[in-house]
Specification:
Ribosomal Protein S5, domain 2, 21 helices, 4 domains, 5-stranded mixed sheet, 22 strands, single chain, Heat Shock Protein 90
């Protein structure tokens, strides 16, 4: 609501709704007006999405059989250059628009070769807005097309064409090179993260067997880069994801099939962990919310395993069937489907909706997986032993859950004894601080705003769920108060609509022990309440480590770097005799008013939202840092030790 309308309403004035209120945004103005509608956000996530849009176009060329090499370069000024050896964007005059086709692609929304014109049988670019949206949100974009013996060039600035299509020279090659610089008027940050791009393009190289993606970063004094090329395709992808796990069988189970213009390929392998990691793609686009391909896979997997278990007496006559979660425990799988007319939910393509794909996946998995199990009885036996163990643990968890519910531990009307709840009942307005220690919890209870801030003190370190099945979680006295306070259950039963707070803030000491507690809690939320993170409800408080005072003036600093920065800004020096530096040993040392002022007051605090950019990368981090294998932790410490600047002993 605009300030003018709000002012009129407060003054009791009415605003007539007439033809002057209807705005027509021409060209790409709509994209610049509402960028979030097209790229999700204007944060770092949206910034990187621009690169993905251009690279996806090159990958579509590879899917059409016209391209095998894609080069992505982060230039020294944080602009991006994407080059491919495809056919090149057509440069002839577009019959409908009367301008060069390459200009149409970059300046007209919903214009592209992916709407049934025959240019692409399979494509990730469903809406035809990729290049034009990137152009609209860039300070400048330059495109060079090698085609028909010439190098064609055009430049745009903030979506507007700056020059006619020009011929720069002759060539015997084909392909498209795009250079763009995101617009500082649009984005919150213009700094690209090399590792974020590397993760994405490694994924693309796995999904497109035989396609070479070369990523380089020219910003440092010594440029870095990596060539991503995998002949094994998604089998190599599963091997990569399981490279630090103890696998139950050495080779991946590969399944593929096709019908009409649709195809599916699946690679799967079991490890000895307690979590499932299934990643779904449609036309190379990751579907974080799954869709019909995931539904078909899960249904077929459960049916095949139960049929096989009955046939070979892994399950006796009086045994219950294996549940879906039993047969997926420890499973790493990639599901990749290709289809000519994908139906996605939203521009960011989080979920696939094609009903025919469920039938295709279910049929192919049903036939091919049954055949594999028959031909590989030893592997089948190892997998079923794990499934049966998972089923027994699930039954134990059910009993533990029922027992704790009878004791009111999970009763929705019963809250933890140590919880100091807020008076507000609308979860969108409520926040809960999960606080380390009774002492800090006491200060937080006194200092909080009781209307909308709840406090849940936790004492000591809770269970590391990475090393435990769900039955252990239900019997853990440190985690039960968290489950109980949030009110949405856990695991497969987790229901985000029942959450009692839409801000869940972990508040731990600014030291090593506090970091460990934050990691334990984040592991728990990632494994058993992942939608909490996906919906943006999880935060980390940033309590100060120092209070620096001189005369009657003082400031708080969250770490050494923050303290040095503020000292420099004020012109203070550490050797000043009038300067006092207090280092807080923990939250419990802070007075309630200090805790409110520095860490809890929405107007003065800084809290960090925990986001999930890439589920596969997050899974690897939690597995490395919190899992049973020691070697990945050693490797992580060796690789990151040089970054440590303040280590509490």
């Amino acid at each position: 609501m605009s300030d003018e309308i709000l002012k009129n309403q407060q003054n009791g004035e009415k605003h007539d709704y007439n033809e002057n209120d209807i705005q027509v945004l021409e060209g790409l103005e709509a994209v610049r007006k509402r960028p979030g509608m097209y790229i999700g956000s204007t944060s770092a996530r949206g910034l990187h999405h621009l690169v993905y849009e251009i690279v996806d176009n090159s990958v579509d060329e590879a899917l059409a059989g016209r391209c095998d090499t894609i080069t992505v370069t982060i230039n020294s000024d944080n602009s991006i250059t994407v080059s491919d050896n495809g056919a090149g964007i057509p440069v002839g005059i577009h019959k409908q628009m009367g301008i060069p086709t390459v200009e149409v692609v970059h300046t007209v929304l919903h214009a592209g070769g992916k709407f049934g014109g025959g240019g692409y049988t399979v494509s990730g670019g469903l809406h035809g807005v990729g290049a034009s949206v990137v152009n609209a949100l860039s300070e400048y974009l330059e495109v060079e097309v090698s085609r028909e013996g010439h190098v064609h060039y055009q430049r745009y600035e903030r979506g507007k064409t700056m020059c006619p299509l020009q011929i720069k020279g002759n060539t015997d090659k084909t392909g498209t090179t795009t250079t763009f610089k995101p617009d500082g008027q649009i984005f919150e940050t213009l700094e690209f993260d090399y590792n974020t791009l590397l993760t994405r393009f490694r994924e693309m190289a796995f999904l497109n067997r035989g396609v070479r993606i070369i990523l380089s970063d020219s910003r440092a004094e010594e440029p870095t880069g990596e060539t991503l090329y995998y002949e094994g395709g998604i089998n190599s992808y599963v091997a990569y994801l399981n490279r630090k796990e103890t696998v139950l069988h050495p080779d991946q189970i590969y399944i593929s099939g096709e019908k009409d213009t649709s195809s599916v390929e699946i690679s799967m392998q079991y490890n000895d962990s307690y979590v499932e990691n299934i990643y779904c793609y449609a036309n190379n686009i990751i579907n974080n919310d799954g869709g019909t391909h995931l539904t078909g896979f899960r249904a077929a997997l459960t049916k095949v395993f139960n049929d096989y278990a009955r046939k070979y007496n892994f399950l006796k006559d009086n045994d219950k069937n294996l549940a879906g979660e039993d047969v997926r425990e420890g499973l790493t799988a990639i599901i990749s489907v290709k289809l000519s007319n994908p139906q996605f939910e939203g521009q960011t393509k989080e979920k696939l909706g094609n009903s025919e794909i469920r039938t295709l996946v279910e049929t192919v998995v049903g036939d091919k997986l049954e055949q594999y199990l028959e031909e590989n009885p030893q592997t089948a036996k190892m997998i079923f032993e794990k499934c049966l163990t998972a089923a027994r643990a699930r039954e134990a968890a059910k009993k533990a859950r029922e027992l704790t519910r009878r004791k009111s531990a999970l009763d929705e009307t019963s809250l933890p004894g140590k919880l100091a709840d807020c008076s507000e009942k609308d979860p969108t307005l409520c926040e809960i601080f999960i606080v380390e220690g009774d002492s800090a919890g006491g200060s937080a209870k006194v200092g909080r705003n009781r209307e909308y801030q709840a406090i849940l003190p936790l004492w000591g370190k809770m269970l590391n769920v990475e090393k435990s099945r769900i039955d252990k979680v239900y019997s853990n006295e440190k985690l039960l108060p968290v489950i109980k306070a949030l009110g949405a259950n856990i695991g497969a039963d987790f229901d985000p609509t029942k959450l009692r707070y839409h801000k869940v803030i972990i508040m731990a000491d600014a030291d090593v022990d506090g970091s460990h507690i934050r990691m334990l809690l984040m592991t728990f939320f990632f494994r058993y309440m992942r939608p909490l993170i996906e919906n943006g409800y999880l935060y980390l408080a940033q309590p100060p480590l120092y209070k620096v005072e001189r005369s009657k003036e003082f400031f708080y600093a969250v770490d050494d770097q923050d303290m040095e920065r503020q000292l420099s800004e004020k012109g203070w020096t550490k050797n000043d005799k009038n300067l006092t530096i207090q280092r807080f040993k923990g939250l419990g040392e802070m007075k309630p008013e200090q805790l409110w002022e520095t860490t809890m007051n929405p107007e003065t605090r800084t809290i960090l939202r925990v986001t999930l950019e890439n589920a596969a990368s997050a899974n690897e981090i939690f597995s490395d840092l919190m899992g049973d294998n020691v070697e990945p932790r050693k490797d992580f410490i060796h690789e990151n030790a040089r970054y440590v600047q303040n280590l509490d002993i």
